[in-house]
Amino acid sequence: MTFQSKNDPPSPKEISLSGKLTRMVTLSLWVAGIIWTLLCVGGLIYQIYSLRLQAFELATAQAKERYHSQELILTNPALMTSEIHQMSKGHLNLGHVTSLTPLNPANAPDPWERNALFQFEAGEKEVLTSMTVGGEEYIRYMRPLLFKKECLQCHGATEKDIGTIRGGLSVMVPISPARAVTRSQVTSLVIGYPLVWLVGLLGLLLAGRSLTRQVSRNEKIQIRLLESEKRAHILAQAIEQSPTSVTITDLESRIEYVNRAFCESSGYDESEVIGQRISMLKSGRTPAATYAALWRMLALGLPWRGEFWNRKKDGSEIVEFSTVSPLHDEQGRVVNYVASQEDVTEKKLLGMELDKHRHHLEELVDERTREVEEARLKAEEANRSKTRFLSNMSHEIRTPMNAILGLTHLLRETELDDSQYERLEKIDNAASHLLSIINDILDISKIEAGKVTLESKVFPLDELLESITEFFRADVEAKNINLEIETHHAPLWLKGDRL
């Protein structure tokens, strides 16, 4: 199987030849019709002319026959001749004997006869002419009368006069009877030839129509063939110039066609692989299961897709992604296999390299995850240690703070002046605030341990703000700063955790 990819595709000029052929057929039919018409007209004219000529020849034959009959009469005695002359006076077609020097004036020649006699003197043997007399056409025929030996006794001549011209005998025969004989034939020709012309013209039209249809069908077939050749040429060029390797084998896996890309990728020349089995490209690295799956799909008449590890001419290996499909003929039978192959060696190697890096990355991620988990566990342990430390420290601080608050309460029960009482009040507020801070630290520990509980109680906002002000008042006054709290539009009571 070969592709004639180097041939040029059918040109528009070749396709246009079919249209010219149709026009030539049409023109030929017109020319044939004109020639047929001219032949029929010419044939009719020729036949009519021939019939007219036949009528003339028939009249001429009658005139010559009449002449010979008159000539026989003249061989009788003079009395018979005289009687014939008398009988012929009212019958022009019976004949007329005359001479240039007639003894009887009644036998004087007319102008035509005189001219004929002069021609006889000049050596003419006979004179034949058609002429019109009294509106009717006649044939006039005249021959010279020679002096014979039999005439010596009657005419008193000597032997030296034998053979001399004594005059002439003319006859005149009408042509109309002969015309009447051919008239019916002319009528038949006038009627028959147009009919023959019509039949012939109809035959030409039918033949031309049939020929035109046949030419039109042939043109369409030719155009389809040219278009098919063009498409086949384009397909062959596409396959030949395709960057994908294309291989066509027979049912025995013998290579019948390879394109340019196959030769470039495998390193083999076309002449080196044509007729060889496709197995020459095996490298041994393609699994047997791949070939089994390939032949299983091809046996079902279905295409197969997969990868082959093939060996190039130089011994190096390439990986090709192949699509192998069966080719069917008009009856649906598998006659060839076609394989399109793409070199995916770089992609395959890159994929393998990526797989190697991916596995290495997964190992790194697992190792990092273990490190992060260990760090998290350590951080949680450190946080628990911190929480225990804060809890212990908070308990240790709360003990002296409770003592301070207790002693402050006892002192406030004694007799104190106003300044002492105010100072004890500040100590009590500061100690209470510090104790709330210690409780907050304990709450933080509880939050980290997941054991915190928030209170939800109603308390006055002004008392909370007053306690805060008293806590910072000493520092503010020491710095000669006036501290005031404004609660415009603020609610008097709040609900929540006061601390």
Give a verbal description of the structure.
- This protein has 499 residues and is an alpha+beta fold.
- 59% of the residues lie in helices and 16% in strands.
- It contains eleven helices and eleven strands.
- The chain has helices at 12-74, 78-87, 111-121, 152-155, 176-241, 260-266, 270-273, 288-299, 345-411, 418-449, 461-478, and strands at 96-98, 127-133, 136-146, 165-174, 245-249, 255-258, 304-311, 317-328, 334-343, 457-460, 493-496.
- Strand 8 and strand 9 form a beta hairpin.
Please give the structural blueprint.
Blueprint: H1 12-74, H2 78-87, E1 96-98, H3 111-121, E2 127-133, E3 136-146, H4 152-155, E4 165-174, H5 176-241, E5 245-249, E6 255-258, H6 260-266, H7 270-273, H8 288-299, E7 304-311, E8 317-328, E9 334-343, H9 345-411, H10 418-449, E10 457-460, H11 461-478, E11 493-496
Antiparallel strand pairs: 1-4, 2-3, 3-4, 5-6, 5-9, 7-8, 8-9, 10-11
Helix pairs in contact: 1-5, 9-10
Question: Summary?
Answer:
The chain has 499 residues and is α+β, with helices and mostly antiparallel strands. 59% of the residues lie in helices and 16% in strands.
List unreliable stretches of 5+ residues.
1-7, 77-84, 86-93
Radius of gyration: 73 Å
Instruction: Characterize the main sheet.
Output: 5 strands, antiparallel
Percent of residues in helices comes to 55-70%
Query: What structural class should be given to the helix and strand makeup?
Result: alpha+beta
* Count of individual helical segments: 11
Proportion of beta-strand residues: 15-25%
Notable characteristics:
single chain; 16% strand; disordered N terminus
